[in-house]
Structure formats: C-alpha cells, structure tokens
C-alpha cells in the first residue's frame, strides 16, 4: 500500500500548515533507534517526508515490502548511532521549517549534512555545503571538517577549498608583497600591520612539524629579498649620515630602521643570505659607531645604541660561527670597532638601571642572551686572528677598566696554551717535513 493510504489526512496537510508531532494529522511514525537501545517516536506526515527525502520516499512507496503499519499509520524505522541522534531529530524538524534554515554552527551543519546525505536530501545537503563554505571556521572546526568531509564523497570536496595547498606561484606572490611591506617605512598607525607581516614571513620560512612554504633556493624570492634589504640598508645609511642631533623624531626613525634590520637578519639567516647584511655592516661600522658616540646618551638614545648593539651581535655571531667568511683584516677590524663600543656601553646601561626605582628615569634593557652571544662571538673571532693580534687585544682588555665585560678569559686561556706549546708544535711539524723531504 502506498503512503497516500489515508486521503483525508493528506488533504488536511495540504490545506493547512502541519507540525511535527501533530498526532491528529500525522500518517507516519518515524522511529529513531540508536545503537545504545534508544527508541524515539516522531509523528510525521508522508507528504512532507517523501518530498524532502528520497530515503523516506522509497520506504513509503509500494515497492517497499516491509513497511509496517502501526495504529493506522505507516512506521519507518531509522537506525543511527547515539551521538548522531540529535542531528536526525534536527533534520526531521527542519523538514517542517521554511527556508532559509538556521544551522547554528559548523559542527551542527556537519552533523546534519551527514544525515542529509544518508537520507537522500539533496536540497538540504546543498544548503549545508553553502553554509560551510561561507562561514568562518575555528581551528577545532577545521579538524572536524578534515575528519568528516573526505569520507562523504568527491562531490563534497569543494568544502575543503580553503584548506587545499596553494600553487607555488601564489605563495611567491604573497611573499614578495609581504617582504616589500615588512621592510618599508609606513606611518606609525600601521605598525601592528607591519609586525604581523613580519611574523607571517618568519612563519612561512620556518620548518616545524611541516615543511616551510618556501625553500631558500628560490631565486625569484632571493632576488626580491636582496633588493628589499638593499633598500632598507640604504635608508638606514642615509639616516646615520644625516644624524646631526638626537631629536625625538630622528631617533625614533633610526630605531625603527634598526628594528627592521634586526628582524630581517632572521629572514636572511633562514634563507642563508646573512652575508648581504654582514658585508654592509662591516663597511659601515666605523661611521655608525662614530656617529652615535657623538650624541648624548639619554634614555631614548641609549635604547637606540642598544638596538645597534643587537644588530651588531647578529653580524658578529655570523662571523664567529664561520657562516660568513671574511679575511683577517676585516675580522680584526670588527673587533677593533665593536669591542670598545660594547665595553663603554655596558656600564652606561647598568648605571642607568641602578635608578630603576626612580619614576622619572625609565630603565633600558637588552636581553641577557644577546650580551652572552656578543661575548661568545668576540671570543670566537679573536681566536681566529694571528697570535700577535690576539696578544694586543688581550693586553688592552686586561688593562681596561671594563675588564669585567666582555669576559675574554676563554680566549686568554687558549692564547696562553697555544703560545706555550707553539715552539714544540712547530718543531714537530718541521721534523715531519724534513723526514718527508728526505
């Protein structure tokens, strides 16, 4: 017998709006039975069910031999898992609700989508897909979508469009735009936007649980980074050369450029391009130091000097680790310029911070690992120099009133050992050479 067995009830539902659970007009009972023994009855209407769902249309047709009759009504059993029960209830209620439907949230829409597919409700499935494509997702939503959607079939993969890997050319394009903005000098009001761009550029190049979005051997990227860095250093150079007074605006602009140079050094390290910064800094060191040392070291200027020191530490570290190879004369030059600068600066910072409790005096600080990194870099570079040059530097250090920092004790110990055993070592080498020549 077909689902239109009771014409009086069907005609009644056609004339007036009906509601789920209306036993007077209902001609179908939907029993939702769960794997945990739940049995939930819903009084429904065949006209609504067959119109909205192919599953119900088939179950209520003459071609379905096992259709049961219960209390003069058709009975359709639907089996589901207990966690999915609410989604089945929701979809039955939505059958009776005029469009557009309210999906409430991503998780609810995903649950209803799965039920809609199972019950053969293409219109509702389409509405769920449109909702999921249009609304923002939290990270938890994304994980849930990735867990569920791939198993729904290829026709639903469009939901994953925003999570798909992008074409490499698109990555290159956004990287180039971001590096141009991140190394520019926009108005102060755009400071947070610029910081965000810098953070994302670092993230794109960082290898963590996932591979970097870009590899360091991309020549298009390297060329653009090199151009942007050159432009940034050129602006910094102009600012240093024209810095005749420590006015607030000039010092602020100089410090902003130094912050950008410090940041870009991390990008250059990740891309194995740090030599671009090192070569510039080696050549510009004398003018940088001589310019800032002429200016009064008030709080603002002292902070700028610390930022210069921070950049210098990154350059000296690259040299000390051997990441950038420089001839002896340039390594010696860097020690001669930056060792005295740091020896004078550290006491100024410490004296300034003695008055830290004075509300009228703001403290200035640099992270301790930067001071330690500087000290290690000095030791490493000094130990690469000829013995006589090492002796001169260490003698000056021991005579200096700033002998406490940087602590070159390690370099002194190595120099003493090398000097003491030098004659024996060289004699041994000469003997070996004579044996080979004979």
TrEMBL record:
Gene3D superfamilies: Potassium Channel Kv1.1, Chain A. One of its GO terms (biological process) is protein ubiquitination. SUPFAM superfamilies: POZ domain (SSF54695). Residues 26-136 form the BTB domain. It holds the Pfam family BTB. This is BTB domain-containing protein. Pathway: Protein modification; protein ubiquitination.
